[in-house]
Structures are given as structure tokens and as C-alpha cells.
Amino acid sequence: MTTTQTTPIIGQATRRVTGPLKVSGQATYAAEFSKDFGPELAHGVLVTTMAASGRIASIDTEQAEAAPGVVRVFTHLNAPELPYEEPVMRPQVQPQVGDPLRPLQTDQIFFSGQTVAVVVAETLEQAEHAATLVRVTVDEAPADTNLHAARQRPEADEEQDTPRVSAPKKPAENSTMTGRPSDVTVGDPDAAFEAAAHTVDLDIEIKTLVNHPIEPHATIAWWEGNKLTVHDKTQWVDNARHKLALAFGIRQEEIDLKVDALNTAKDAVESVLGIRESSVRVITPFTGGGFGSGLRTWPHTFLTAMAARELDRPVRLVLTRAEMFTSVGHRPHNLQRVRLGADADGRLQSVIHEGWQETSVYEEYTMNLLNTTRMAYATPNLRTTYRLVPLNVQTPTSMRAPGECSGAHALEVTMDALAAEMGMDPLELRRRNNATHDVQGTPFSSKHLAEAYDLGAEKIGWADRPLAPRSMRDGDDWVGLGVSSTFYPANRIKASASARLLPDGTAQVHTAASDMGPGTYVSMTMVAADTLGLPLDKVRFALGDSDFPHAPVHGGSMTMASVGPAVRAACQAAVQAVIELAIDDDASPLAGASANDVRLEHGELIGPGGRETLMDAVRRHGEPVEATAASGPNKLQMLMPSDYVFHSYGCVFARVRVDARTGEPRVEKVVAVNDVGKVINPTTAASQTIGGVVMGIGMALMEEAILDPNFHRYANDTLAEYHALTNRDAPEIEAHFVGEPDYELNPLGARGVGEIATVGTSSAVINAITHATGVRVLSLPATLDKVL
Ligand code: MOS
């Protein structure tokens, strides 16, 4: 059987199939499933600590317990001990070293904002009130949140119990976000730097940023006997199920084959022996943003399930916006030093990129801070050095292009400084150093960066840009144009899906994927409809249920590249099953044909002796025809031996205005051009790009969780004071795509769109501010006091 693409569905701008549900309020997010429950639903509220280090000396719950409506107050003194079994296989997106935070299992305090109690009451208001009555005393120990000071300390040697600065203890080989080791040296970068005709050496700082999806994290959990069901805000229902099964030690005899797809078969067998994941179900059809905060399963989810079990009733817990700062990770504070050396023609001779990044004192969180630098530009000499600094903060987490976003920012600001030092056009400097392979010599599968530079330059009007900074003035504003390259790896891992063809002429396609906003629903509906030759409205696609076939993490920009081929494979398998039925059915014009001689075209099965539509064959069969299929490598594509580096590229151009009187920067226009392989749905690809640019502008100009140096607590933990870009601040944004389908990566040729748009934006904006004003801001965000 061959499937010929007959309908022009893939590549057509298509509106979200979930749009009407979302705008009419019918899309149900985790906390909103409370509508399914009556008064038996209890409400949990967290109590967090002000202290940043030490041990709980006493915790007084008497008043809280006596308050109206209170059902129970859980603390480390009365909470049941949970098994929290360790997976043999470390699933993706987990820190490699250390122990996850397990509140109420210990009296230890690691950071300010840590949960120390959960109050459960009949109503949310009663729980909120009672939570204010819990009195916690901490024997405080000295806390440390000073990354600058810690960076100056000598590196830890292995003898030390509490290293202050160290390389990651273990290459993060299983992590989605951290595929490769970070300390790499090629050639002799120090000698080449000394000898270079032009050099720059910058120290750059990126403060803590917080994932702030509109939907806060929330969980509803209930037990029926030993079966746990959960609605949880997550980007990965399968992992939430796995983690909950481990936390509660839910055991079984047989191996749950579904997890086979998580990793290599051997690892999977070891990892799930004894864990009955089918007794846990996670159902999350809608995820209102996440940017990475939904990759892990966080302590409040386990606590909600614990409370539900202890109280034998459903419990709902929604994080407050303030708790979103300290309960679900953040983009870590980091410091970077970048040295670039170029010859007289602007060809890079040396790239030295060092990074120091905070992590918590109980876990290592690693990200791809410096990996981009090894893909970015051609250079014979390079060194990247990545160091972690444990501080009294929660464990950081992935936030849209974790690592790449921060690392590329520093590299691209330093590239701009090098161009300025040479008196060269910064776009020309990038063109001259455009690489055909990574620093270790492996070629890219497909790269159309030069075309992206051309298109972006045309769209922003780069040709008219004067070279000198502070040379464009319009009324009270300095005006500037900046450019940045942008980068993001292309990844893929095994995923599976089921396709069910029904006698009523419709198809149902299921997979345990997520849609946190990029449009998984519509893009997968398109892939299924395209494969089956059906109109879009005949396909009903569902996701977000751990009982569906396994899907990988909805992160790393790899849902399209991973789940898309699985949806296609499942649909093809269902077609194959129909063909097998038809050739055995005397009533079919295909009767007696060999399956190999039948093909699907325009929704019709065509054989040597005749043709009929696919759905006519299903209708005559009278029962649904169903198939499940998996597609993709067992391990992340980037970890598989390959002749290619799979990577996406692009560029961002920004035009800014800076008020000459106040120093206030505003972004007027952004043009983003990306080479991401095949664009499946131009509408949602453009939307993702625009969203990524908005986030990048926020990072450049506004966003910062300000850590109080005395209390080690975020001082601006509201959305009123943690400034994110609003509609009023957002400029005109153009999203363009160049390049070709990347069939080396997957049969759809798509490399993923979600994260690359954020990567180059902050540096393009900073570079534009430098062009406008002559001021190079080295510590984000570029608030007006730094620009003036
Ligand atoms: Mo993204 S940080 O992979 O959700």
C-alpha cells in the first residue's frame, strides 16, 4: 500500500479546531473539572515558609484546625510517608543528580517559598483563611543566593561535601533539554584569542525569569480504591502518571508495555517492573500555556493526591500566582563570559564561552546553555565551560528554549560588539561566519540561514541602516536597528497513536500528547486528514489522556516531529487494515487483489480491478477498524548516531525607539525568519513565532524575578510587579519561513517551531538599543535606568 498525498491539507493555513471551544469557555482546564464534582470536592491551600534555609522547629496548626470548614491540616508531623520509588530509568526532563523536593516528608528548608503545610477545607475561602492561621517556626541556617559571589569561589574538588561551583556531575544524557556534554575544547582557543586581530570580551547577566502561563498550575485528584485519577496542568500526561505511580508505590505483576516507548526496551522493562501505571490515569485535554513549567510533575500534585487518599474524597489545589514563583521552577539566573577573536576579515578564530548558572541545593538542573555556541558559527578554535552553583532557590526548570535562549543571547550580543569593534555591519559579520557544520565537523541536515538573512534584511529595511550608533533620531526618540541569529536543535523521539475508522464515515485519532497552545490539536488533525484523504471535519483528534497511546514530552519543540509521524503511521496502519478487509470481501471492487497492489488516493482505495472510497469499505464492514502504531527512535534523535546535526536556524531583526529624555526603550517592529523544515500549519507556526518574539521582548526589556538579598525571597511575586509584555507593549511582528522539508529527521520533514522564535529576540532587541543609543546593556532586563 502506498499513500499518495492528495489533499492540500498539510501546509495550508488552518484555524485551530479548538478555537470555538476555547473562546466559548467550553475547553476544560485542570482546575475547571471541579464542575464534575459536587460538595464532596475539598479544597487544598499551601502554606509556604519565609525562611530560606534551616529546619522547622515547630509548626502550630491548632488554630487552623479549629477554623470553620477545615477538614485536615497536613504537615511533616502527620503526613503519611510516601514511597517515592526511584525509577531505574531516569525519564527525560529530570535533573540528573540530587533528590526531588518532597514537602511534608522532611523538616528541612532549602529555599524561601517552600511548602510546609497543606490546609484542606470544604471551600477554597475557608482553606485560604485557615492557611493564614498556621504558625511555623524555623531554626534558620545561613542562606546563600548570591551567584556573583559564588562564581568567584574556587571550583569544588571531589573531596568537598558541599561544592559551591562545579561542572554537572553527570552528562545529562537522558534529558530532553540537555543532550550533549557542555565542556568542549576544539583547537587552542586561548592562543587564537591572543593572536586575533580583533577581540571582544563581555560579561553578561540574565536574571531569574519565571514561566507565567495564564493558567496557573492546578490539580484535582481522587481515588477509587487503589485507582488514582488526576487532572493536572501538565505538558506530559504519561510522565505525570509514571511519577504518581512511583510516588505512591502502586505495584503490579505485569509490565505495562505502554512505557516501552519511553526509552529503549531494556530500560523500560527495568523501569516499570512492579509499577502498575494502569492504576493511575491523568486526564488533561487542555493546558493553558506552560513554556516548560508543565514538563515535570511538581510537589503540589503529589500532595493533592496524598490528601485525596488520606481524606478519601476528591481534592482540588490551585497554585496562587505568588506560588507560581517558587513551586514550578524558573529560568535560572546565570552569568556568562564570552570572548570572541576574529581575523582582519571578520572570520572568527576563537570562541570562548563560559557560563555559571544557579541550581538548587538539593538538585542539579542542567540546561543547554552553551550547546548553541558549538553550532552557531564556523571557528577553528572554541571552548565552552559550564558551571553550576547550588544556591537557596527552588530547582530551576525549563523555560522556552531552556539554555539556548540564555546562551545565544550572550553570544549574539557579543557578536554585535565584535562587529562594532571592527566597524563592520553586524549582519555581514554573521554572513561571513555562517557554518556548514558544527564545531566538531558534523554537517547540518539542512540549513537555509543565508536565505533567512536576505529575507529578514529586506523586510526590516536593513540596507538603509547607518553603521554608526546614535545616528537615527526621530523627534524625542533615538531609533536603532538590531539583528541576531537564532538557533534551536531539532529533535524527535518515539511516539505512538491510534486511528479508528468508523462506519459513520469519521475517524478518531488518539495519542497521549499535549497542547499547551501551539496547536497540537489542529496540526495532528491535519496530518490525520491528509493521510486518510478525509476532510478535516471528519477527523476527531483527542489528546491529553494517559490511557491513550504513549506520547513523549510536549516540549523541546518536538511534538510535531515526533507525534506527527506517529499519527501518520497509525492512520496508514488503519488504511492497511481496511485494505486487508476489502480484498477478502466479495462485495468489494478490490476483492481478490493483492494488498500491495492497492493504494489510497483522494480518499479512494484503488486496486487493479476497481476502486471504492476508504470509508465506503469501512461502512460495509459495519464495525470500526482500528490500528495503533509507533514511529521514531527509542532515544532522542540528537543522541542517536547520525551523519547529520539536526538543527533549526533563523534570524530576528528588531527596530527600537528609545526616548532620549527618559531612556525608555520600546520595540517598534520585529521581523523573524526561521528555517524549521516543513511548516505543517502556517497559521499556528506564525502564532508560535509571534508568541516567542513577545516572550523574547519581555526578557529583553522587562521580565525579572527580583531576589531580595537579605530575605532570599522574590520581592515582586505578582504579575503587577513582575512585568511581562502586554498587548500595549507588543510591536508589529512579522513571521516568515524559509527552507525545505527536512526528511532526514522524519517523514513529515518538520523540525518544530515552538522555541526558536524566542531564542534570538532578546539579543536583537538589545543590539537595536545599542544601535539607537550607543549603550550596550549587559545585564537583562534593559530597564530605562540602564539605557539612560
Ligand atoms: Mo519547552 S521549555 O520544551 O516546554
UniProtKB/TrEMBL annotation:
Keywords associated with the record: Molybdenum, Oxidoreductase
Keyword Ribonucleoprotein (UniProt): no
Aldehyde oxidase/xanthine dehydrogenase a/b hammerhead domain: residues covered: 24-142
Disordered, as annotated region: 149-188
InterPro entries: Ald_Oxase/Xan_DH_a/b, Ald_Oxase/Xan_DH_a/b_sf, Ald_Oxase/xanthine_DH-like, AldOxase/xan_DH_MoCoBD1, AldOxase/xan_DH_MoCoBD2, AldOxase/xan_DH_Mopterin-bd_sf
Pfam families per record: Ald_Xan_dh_C, MoCoBD_1, MoCoBD_2
Protein name: Xanthine dehydrogenase family protein molybdopterin-binding subunit
Natural source organism: Rubrivirga litoralis
